[in-house]
Amino acid sequence: MRNGLAELGELLALVHRATRGAAQATGEHRSAAVWGALSTLRERPLRLGDLAAASRVAQPTMTKIVEGLEAQGWVRRDADPGDARARLVVLTDAGDAALDDWRRRLVAALEPQFGGLDAEDVAALRRTVALLRERLDPSAAEVRSEPGTASSATGVLEGSATRTT
User: pTM for the complete prediction?
Assistant: First the structure.
C-alpha cells in the first residue's frame, strides 16, 4: 500500500491489541460494545437503530445493551425533536463519568509499557492523535489537539481522562 495506508492498518491493529490487553488487565466484566456505545453517544445522541449500526451490532443486541445502561443510569431515552414517534439514546452525566473512569483504568493498565516515554515519543503520539482527529473530524481537531487539553497525548500518558474513542 502507498501513502501510509499500510502503516495506518498496522496502527489500527496495534491500538486494538493494546485496548484489548488493557481491558483484560482491568478485570472489567462489561463488554467492549458497552464502552463503544457510550463513546459513540458522547459524540451525539442517536436513535437505537443508528446506535446499533454505528456499533456494528444487531438492534436486539443494542436494545439489551441500552437497557443495561439505562439501569445503571448511564443513558436515558429522550423524545427525538425531529420525530415525536422516535426516541434518542442520550449519554447522562453519570455515563460520561463512567466512560472517563474506564478510560483512566485503561491508561493505568498501559502505564508499564508507556509510562516512561521521552519527550520525542510523546510528541510523536501527540502528532498521531492530531492527525487522526484532523482526518476523522476536521472541525474538532484544532480544539481537541491543543497541548494541555484533557485529550492531549500528554494527558493520556499521565493517566488523565481522554475524550477520544
Answer: 0.76
Could you read off the pLDDT of 74-93 as tens digits, one per residue?
999 999 999 989 999 999 99
DSSP the chain: --TTHHHHHHHHHHHHHHHHHHHHHHT--S-HHHHHHHHHHHH--B-HHHHHHHHTS-HHHHHHHHHHHHHHTSEEEEEETTEEEEEEEEE-HHHHHHHHHHHHHHHHHHHHHHTT--HHHHHHHHHHHHHHHHHH-HHHHHHHTSTTSTTSHHHHHTT------
Q: Give residue for cell 481537531.
A: 141
Amino acid at position 161, single letter: A
**Cell numbers that stand for 120 in this block:** 520525542
Domains of the chain: 5-114 (1.10.10.10)
Residue with cell 510528541: 123
| Contact call for residues 69 and 48 (beta carbons, < 8 A) | no
Residue 136: its pLDDT value, please? Answer: 87
The phi and psi torsions of 79 (rounded to 5 degrees) equal -65, 140
